[in-house]
């Protein structure tokens, strides 16, 4: 608002009838709040992705060429796998959408002269919206009453500095109230609001890929390159060898199927199932990969107040200096009654001291701001303040100016070391900082505040729009408050420590207080601690070293919290940050994984990757185990995919120059369906927790996948050539005038069927090697004792036998009937393959070559 303009009159709000009329006129805030991918996005990403589109195009081409059965089977198998994943993910989305409603930002609207909480979609143009510290601005408007506010617009502008707002100032949707409160009038709603116009939603503030996702993307890019090379070879072969166009398309269909589309679906399915499991345990997943991300965490940073502790603050003790105890209590009561926005500390003071009434807020020496609706106005026993400096976690103090009454003058309340810097006397400053009670209370984990005063009622200086601490203050006394640890904190932190995760407590409170609470939580008897002031004086190298080596950080600013998370990430750590206040937002965004409390501020919940719905740490070990389950399951899936894909690729590379092609599109689809499609779903669902592979998965993956891949190629290639040659000779012996091409066309189906049967059986035998039910199969992976994948393999082998037994099913999958002895040869080669594979793994040759630890003891049964 321009200087000199009078503030607008107090808003009176709309009636329900007026609101209904405006909504009917299209002036409602009718925007769907995103709780994840939409149904259209899920269908598009699962069904109409690039890989599927290529296969669909090839399928259409095959239909136009008269090979409709090739098209139906090849595309149908892909669609079958896709539909399963699609069904699971949509079911997961419906579950999560119902739970996510609980975390939507709420709006308090003034209707019919009364305040009531509504969903933001119920707002209309002209509504009067009430906001308090920690609330999200949900529609654009102009501050009409209350203030001053300090607003965080970093999600909109990228600037982390708080922006002061006075009556008449514009408020933009997508920003958060850091301190203060008031009422604003909605001026732009729906798609007209700033946040929606620039599509800057808080939940979409980032998308951090996990290490596993990065590594999988590299593998997929390598396979894409491989497919491009093979396609080029097929085109050259077709041009040089005058291969019919229909055969070229059939070969291209097989080659495109090398791209592991099922792997992408398996990841989406794993994340969806993980999110549903965690929802049942009190954790809402806002980023799809958050649970798997947790399994990578090696440093867990947590706030104190409202996170480690319950935030149920109670008065404990006080120590007056200049005033009597009765006078000191009166001044504290006046302070609690006079401020306009509440946090937990002020409510504790108002409850403790007679005459405080239900005054809304006080200063808080800690760094959290509550987001409950405002209580009633200050008690009439005290005069109203003429100026106010709101509490903020950056300043760590708040203040009031009174022109009359027992509190006449300028009062400030906050962190003792912060206010001590503005005392009139250096002697008093030293006495405060060396006060016996201050040390004793802090050592017990109690929160200590200093109340100081100037006798003159002075307005707070605001050279940059933010209040500054006045000088020449006189200390009045210390007040002590207590907070309690949340239930299960000790057990939860102990579990993380046992898992090798370092715990760091980062708070705006006194370092001694934080260290004492950390000791109570079981971190250490005397944890190392550093203050924010010490951090500010450090060089960049010393700061990074302190971040890595220190357990407790006190009196830190929100910017220092963010810098600590960044310093740990720069040192190669995978960092999770737990917070609940506005002051935690930038640190939550800077960490690899942000975790918020449901009872915390809307700002923290909006930017977090996961939310603890019951404000309980007890859900974190379950989330960690679920992350391990997802990661372990995905590694197993990768093992299966890599063996299938690269064994096919080796045979294609070997046989292309020799003429013919090792696979037909339909029997290749059967291989994908039985060898990977169904097993992948089982491995995803049956994955178990356990310490996952740390670091890169490439070498462990090579250790597992290289022997079976090479052995399949080494045995499959001679089998294919031998069967082909045998049937070519038999054909030529009975058809003397036949050409070599005719003999090849006759023999190739027998060779392809033999090869695909051998490879499917190898893939099924690979399942017990991947998840060993008994020690006999251990060697490639550790013994697990889970028989379910083995039973699945036997079931799929029975399905293959039935498929080979009937002419109709053989036709569907483009298989040729083989004599019984040839089936026996295939089975015999599979047994040889399994024994050789077990021997290679247990010999440790690849372990020594790749410098990997042995996967399992090698004692035989």
Quick overview of this protein structure:
The protein has 861 residues and is α+β, with helices and mostly antiparallel strands.
Your description of this structure?
With 861 residues, the protein is of the alpha+beta class. Among the domains are: 16-30 and 106-204, Calcium-transporting ATPase, cytoplasmic transduction domain A; 314-482, Calcium-transporting ATPase, cytoplasmic domain N. It has 30 helices and 23 strands. The strands form 4 sheets. An 8-stranded mixed sheet has the order 10-23-22-21-11-18-20-19, with helices on both faces. It has a 6-stranded antiparallel sheet with strand order 2-1-3-9-4-7, with no helix packed on it. The chain has a 6-stranded antiparallel sheet with strand order 12-17-16-15-14-13. Helix 23 (619-655) runs antiparallel to helix 24 (665-686) and helix 23 (619-655) runs antiparallel to helix 26 (740-770). The longest helix has 37 residues, at 619-655. The relative contact order is 0.09.
């Amino acid at each position: 608002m321009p200087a000199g303009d009078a503030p607008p009159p107090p808003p009176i709000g709309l009636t329900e009838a007026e609101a209904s009329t405006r909504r009917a006129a299209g002036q409602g805030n009718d925007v769907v709040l995103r709780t994840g991918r939409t149904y259209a996005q899920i269908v598009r990403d699962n069904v109409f992705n690039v890989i599927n589109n290529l296969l669909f195009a090839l399928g259409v081409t095959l239909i136009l060429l008269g090979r409709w059965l090739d098209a139906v089977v090849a595309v149908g198998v892909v669609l079958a796998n896709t539909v399963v994943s699609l069904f699971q993910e949509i079911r997961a989305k419906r579950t999560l959408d119902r739970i996510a409603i609980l975390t939507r930002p709420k709006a308090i609207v003034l209707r019919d002269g009364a305040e009531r909480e509504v969903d933001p979609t119920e707002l209309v143009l002209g509504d009067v919206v009430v906001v308090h510290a920690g609330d999200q601005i949900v529609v654009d408007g102009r501050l009409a009453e209350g203030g001053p506010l300090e607003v965080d617009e970093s999600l909109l502008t990228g600037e982390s500095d708080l922006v002061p707002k006075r009556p008449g100032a514009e408020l933009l949707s997508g920003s958060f109230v850091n301190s203060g409160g008031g009422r604003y009038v909605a001026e732009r709603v729906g798609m007209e609001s700033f946040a929606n116009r620039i599509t800057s939603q808080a939940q979409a503030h980032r998308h951090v890929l996990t290490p596993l996702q990065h590594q999988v993307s590299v593998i997929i890019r390598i396979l894409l390159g491989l497919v491009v090379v093979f396609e080029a070879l097929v085109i050259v072969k077709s041009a040089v060898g005058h291969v019919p166009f229909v055969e070229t398309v059939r070969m291209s269909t097989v080659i495109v199927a090398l791209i592991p589309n099922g792997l992408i679906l398996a990841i989406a399915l794993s994340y969806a199932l993980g999110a549903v499991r965690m929802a049942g345990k009190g954790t809402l997943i806002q980023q799809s990969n958050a649970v798997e991300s947790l399994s990578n965490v090696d440093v867990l940073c947590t706030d104190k107040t409202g996170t480690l502790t319950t935030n149920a603050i109670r008065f404990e003790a006080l120590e007056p200096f200049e005033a009597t105890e009765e006078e000191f209590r009166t001044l504290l009561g006046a302070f609690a009654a006079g401020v306009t926005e509440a946090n937990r500390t002020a409510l504790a003071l108002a409850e403790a001291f007679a005459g405080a009434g239900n005054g809304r807020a006080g200063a808080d020496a800690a760094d959290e701001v509550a987001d409950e609706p405002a209580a009633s106005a200050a008690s009439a026993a005290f005069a109203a303040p003429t100026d106010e400096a709101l509490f903020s976690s950056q300043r760590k103090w708040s203040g009031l100016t009174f022109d009359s009454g027992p509190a006449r003058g300028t009062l400030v309340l906050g962190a003792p070391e912060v206010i001590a810097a503005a005392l009139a006397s250096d002697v008093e400053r030293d006495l405060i900082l060396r006060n016996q009670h201050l040390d004793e209370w802090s050592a017990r984990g109690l929160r200590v505040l200093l109340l100081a005063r100037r006798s003159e009622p002075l307005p707070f200086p605001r050279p940059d729009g933010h209040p500054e601490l006045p000088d020449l203050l006189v200390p009045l006394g210390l007040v002590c408050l207590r907070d309690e640890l949340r239930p299960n904190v000790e057990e939860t932190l102990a579990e993380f420590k046992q898992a090798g995760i370092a715990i760091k407590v980062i708070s705006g409170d006194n370092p001694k207080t934080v260290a004492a609470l950390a000791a109570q939580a079981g971190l250490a008897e005397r944890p190392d601690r550093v203050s924010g002031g010490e951090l500010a004086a450090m060089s960049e190298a010393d700061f990074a070293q302190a971040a890595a080596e220190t357990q407790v950080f006190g009196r830190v600013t929100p910017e220092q919290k963010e810098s600590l998370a960044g310093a740990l990430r720069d040192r190669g750590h995978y960092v999770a940050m737990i917070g609940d206040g506005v002051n935690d937002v930038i640190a939550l965004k800077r960490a690899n994984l942000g975790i918020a409390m449901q009872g915390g501020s809307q700002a923290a919940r909006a930017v977090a990757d996961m939310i603890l719905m019951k404000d309980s740490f007890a859900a974190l070990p379950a989330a960690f185990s679920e992350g391990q389950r997802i990661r372990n399951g995905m590694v197993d899936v990768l093992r299966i995919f890599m063996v299938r894909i690269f064994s096919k690729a080796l045979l294609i590379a070997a046989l292309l120059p020799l003429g013919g092609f090792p696979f037909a599109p339909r029997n290749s689809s059967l291989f994908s369906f039985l060898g990977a499609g169904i097993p992948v779903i089982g491995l995803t669902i049956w994955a178990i927790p356990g310490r996952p592979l740390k670091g890169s998965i490439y070498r462990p993956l090579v250790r597992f996948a290289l022997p079976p891949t090479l052995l399949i190629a080494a045995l499959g290639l001679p089998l294919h050539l031998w069967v082909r040659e045998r049937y070519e000779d038999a054909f030529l012996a009975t058809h003397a005038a036949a050409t070599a091409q005719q003999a090849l066309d006759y023999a190739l189906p027998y060779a392809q069927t033999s090869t695909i049967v051998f490879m499917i059986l190898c893939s099924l035998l690979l399942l017990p090697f991947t998840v060993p039910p008994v020690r006999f199969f251990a060697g490639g992976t550790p013994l697990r004792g889970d028989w379910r994948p083995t039973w699945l393999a036997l079931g799929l082998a029975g399905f293959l036998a039935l498929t080979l037994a009937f002419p109709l099913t053989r036709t569907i999958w483009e298989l040729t009937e083989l004599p019984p002895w040839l089936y026996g040869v295939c089975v015999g080669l599979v047994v040889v393959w399994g024994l050789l594979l077990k021997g290679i793994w247990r010999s440790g040759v690849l372990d020594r070559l790749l410098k990997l630890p042995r996967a399992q003891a090698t004692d035989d049964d």
